[in-house]
Amino acid sequence: MNSGELGCLEGGDLRICGELICTICQDLYNSGWVTGTGGGITIRSGDAIVIAPSGVQKERMRLEHLFVMSLKTREYIHKPLQPLKPSQCTPLFLAAYTCRDAYACIHTHSQEAILLSELFPNSDYFSASGFEVLRHIPRGTKKNGFYSITDTVKIPFIDNTAHERDLHDSLKAAILAYPEACAVIVRDHGIYCWGDSWQDTKMNTEAVEYLFQAYLRSRKIKSN
Amino acid sequence: MNSGELGCLEGGDLRICGELICTICQDLYNSGWVTGTGGGITIRSGDAIVIAPSGVQKERMRLEHLFVMSLKTREYIHKPLQPLKPSQCTPLFLAAYTCRDAYACIHTHSQEAILLSELFPNSDYFSASGFEVLRHIPRGTKKNGFYSITDTVKIPFIDNTAHERDLHDSLKAAILAYPEACAVIVRDHGIYCWGDSWQDTKMNTEAVEYLFQAYLRSRKIKSN
Amino acid sequence: MNSGELGCLEGGDLRICGELICTICQDLYNSGWVTGTGGGITIRSGDAIVIAPSGVQKERMRLEHLFVMSLKTREYIHKPLQPLKPSQCTPLFLAAYTCRDAYACIHTHSQEAILLSELFPNSDYFSASGFEVLRHIPRGTKKNGFYSITDTVKIPFIDNTAHERDLHDSLKAAILAYPEACAVIVRDHGIYCWGDSWQDTKMNTEAVEYLFQAYLRSRKIKSN
Amino acid sequence: MNSGELGCLEGGDLRICGELICTICQDLYNSGWVTGTGGGITIRSGDAIVIAPSGVQKERMRLEHLFVMSLKTREYIHKPLQPLKPSQCTPLFLAAYTCRDAYACIHTHSQEAILLSELFPNSDYFSASGFEVLRHIPRGTKKNGFYSITDTVKIPFIDNTAHERDLHDSLKAAILAYPEACAVIVRDHGIYCWGDSWQDTKMNTEAVEYLFQAYLRSRKIKSN
Questions:
Q1: Are C and B neighbours with ≥3 CB pairs closer than 8 A?
Q2: Ranges of chain A with pLDDT below 70
Q3: Which domain of life does the protein's organism represent (chains A, B, C, D) (predicted)?
Q4: Which segments of B are annotated as binding site for Zn(2+)?
Q5: Residue C2's pLDDT is what?
């Protein structure tokens, strides 16, 4: 393992991934989708995945806080010098990487996910149709194309657990059971969303969150 | 066609247009009116129109991503070196340029447009009166003057289509049928808004979106 | 009259006032209280008042756009080189300067002002009590002290008019009739708010807008 | 007492605390939790506590505005050269420092605190359960661990008073009566929130405010 302060994050693709993580953490903080230390993000370059730490404020994330893990061996290629722990989302991120060959994964604590959990307490999935934004949501991966506005998109719900790591099995099961979903809603908690690249992942997250907002506002205006 | 990386965007008026597109894309992203890769903008300088690409994140748009087209010949004067496609809104933007002699056009994915579609499922247009902001909305072009607060402004609805390009005919028809409108609402989708200059276009967009918000909030408070 | 590009705005107190106007215009734009070219601000230094132009986007305001007028003679000490017009709010700002010896005045197009107009169509004033923020609202001027949380603050309504300048007489009448108000609500339009310094004016505006928001949200939660 | 302009804020830990106060004041202003001159923050380094002044706009706070007090002697180690007064929250901040061995304290004027006061006019505390964000809220201090999602968190209410300083006794009583709370809600006013470090304090504040928002939105969607 590289013992320099930045190690393999010093340059090349991994540095780019690391810098993107810091920038996108700031974006996510500004959007209100992460708060305190909630939420997280990981970006992959080949076999190496860059992971943010646990407990660091998202809007103050820096390169020297980040971890790098080998997807194949699950060993850390690089750890920060400071005594930090990797994100508690790491096992969940690994599920997205391995079940879907994703290249990034974002975990938000969006309140819209909580509200949808309340609205559909007994549903296995959230579904919506008729919104333009469906054209921006891939059928699991963009290799399968995107939804059309008359399609019905389904995004599975899973129950929340006492510890983030305990979400692993149900998250993996939902990813496998809904091959045309690019996100999973964790009830009363937030979403996990992935994509074929970091750009796709960020755009998928924004599209899914936009759908949630538009759905909730649209439902409310109809009920008035 | 110019083969340099920036080509005709290197300097002069076209560079200014290009830089404005990048800045305004960031503004639109911050406002929540574009998300993921939704929405778009074009600015014109004489016969040349500068167009943003499809699929690039709005808040990361740079000069080297942009296209330049001749309004007369419809041929590209400049294309980005990267393998990008021009905005899917291009035919729609062209309709605004040719039917109205506009000098810029903005396409938002504002959720207020979706909500108005829900509220008025059978109307040909949205109408409002009594708001101060009407004084900031031109009668199609500012050459015709602006609305007064006691006037009724009408903004036409058109139905959404499976592909952005298929909106062309109905958008053009609406532009021609409502000569005193500076915007069209695409149901469940967003708006197209144009103006006599890029400044007018940005101000018209903000004024129309403000009217939508104020109308919706005002309607809700009356119904409580 | 000074014919240099910046003239008397080149340095000293007037430059500071001018730079503050540009910065605060950006702040107001970010807050959503001005939009398109709506809203405005003026700051005074002795006999000289610095005024923003009409029709310039608030978030792009620069020193070279500004006017300077003598409060005593009502003549322009400095005009921008560009063919701009002074803010249509100028007569209204003058009313605040002369009736109250104010040192700045802000005009917002806040939607909360519109909503309060709807809620109280027949009232001469908006009133509220019990909110902590009352302790931050002066009795017209801070020389008279501030409200306490058990006091009732009254902010007068005036009707909107077809032209901004036509608000002058009713605004002046409201300022004189409500000596303990630091703001006036123009129905379906926005507010005018002033203070003993630019800092006071900005803080008064924020306090009054906060009161409007808190009042509206509080009323709604009680009615559910 | 140090008579230089920055004095003991010139360097070292105290300068870091001072710079953090300025940055976090800007963050709080952007979040809408402080407005005008409402709200406040203090950060501690050993026996020295850095305190923001009263009456300075939060988004324009600078090092030269700050006070430093000895926690033990309650004397000022450093005062700003300008004729400023220390925050009116100082006695309240001292209660958090002494009753809880906190290392920072944030006072917000969040409207959610006002709304919860309205909803629960006769309750001694606000309580909530089932939200993921509970895992980010410490049992008073993180030395006692964090809540789990099935726990019920209780945050005490205290009544507002005519002067900020008069809150002292009831705030202290609430801090002592609710050893597992990291915040107190002042009715119709805002919250006081503390933590084991400035990072914890900022994260606790965000977590508590997030809980308030999620609770209010969730309650509303259930009642529709």
A1: yes
A2: 1-4, 36-37, 224
A3: Eukaryota
A4: 107, 109, 189
A5: 47
CA distance B204 to chain C (A): 7
Report CB contact under 8 Å: C149, D188: yes
Q: D162: which chain C residues are within 8 Å (Cβ-Cβ)?
A: 148-150
Residues from chain C contacting residue B131 (CB–CB below 8 Å)? 114, 188
Tens of pLDDT, residue by residue over C202-222, are 999 999 999 999 999 999 998
Pick from C137, C197, C221 the residue to mutate for testing the D interface (most D CBs within 10 Å): C221
Active-site residue among A5, A10, A64, A132? A132
Which pLDDT tens digit goes with each residue over B113-156? Answer: 999 999 999 999 999 999 999 999 999 999 999 999 999 999 99
CA-nearest of A33, A214, A180, A21 to A103 is A21
Going along chain C from its start, the domains and CATH numbers come out as 1-87 (3.40.225.10), 107-224 (3.40.225.10)
Distance CA B66, CA B51 (A): 6
Rounded Cα gap, residues A72 and A75, in angstroms? 8
The Cα B161–Cα B187 span in angstroms is 9
Q: Report the greatest alpha carbon distance in chain D.
A: 61
Residue C213 Cα, gap to closest chain D Cα (Å):
8
3-state secondary structure chain B: CCCCCCHHHCCHHHHHHHHHHHHHHHHHHHHCCCCCCCCEEEEEECCEEEECECCCCHHHCCHHHCEEEECCCCCEEECCCCCCCECCCHHHHHHHHHHHCCCEEEEECCHHHHHHHHHCCCCCEEEEECCHHHHHCECCCHHHCECCCCCEEEEEEECCCCCHHHHHHHHHHHHHHCCCCCEEEECCCEEEEEECCHHHHHHHHHHHHHHHHHHHHHHHHHHC
For residue B118, indicate whether it is catalytic.
no
Q: Is C159 on the interface with D (CB under 8 A)?
A: no
| A48-51, strands of its sheet edge to edge | A76-78, A67-70, A48-51, A40-45, A104-108, A190-195, A183-186, A152-158, A125-129
Contacts of A109 in chain D (CB under 8 A): 132-133, 210
Cβ-based contacts of B114 with chain A (< 8 Å): 131, 214, 217-218
Which pLDDT value is given to residue A2?
A: 47
**Nearest-CB residue to C36 (from B149, B206, B222):** B206
* CA dist., res. D7 & res. C22, Å (int): 33
Catalytic one among B5, B59, B132, B209? B132
Q: Is C223 an 8 Å CB contact of chain B?
A: yes
Given CB atoms, is A146 within the 8 Å cutoff of chain B? Answer: no
User: How far apart (Å, rounded) are the C-alpha atoms in residues B44 and B46?
Assistant: 6
DSSP A32-60: TSS-TT--EEEEEETTEEEEPBSSS-GGG
**Residue B96 near residue B72 (C-beta atoms within 8 A):** no
Partner C contacted by D35 (CB < 8 A): yes
- Round to whole Å and give the CA distance between C93 and C85: 15
Tokens linked to C196: 């003993």
Per-residue pLDDT tens over the stretch D181-198: 999 999 999 999 999 999
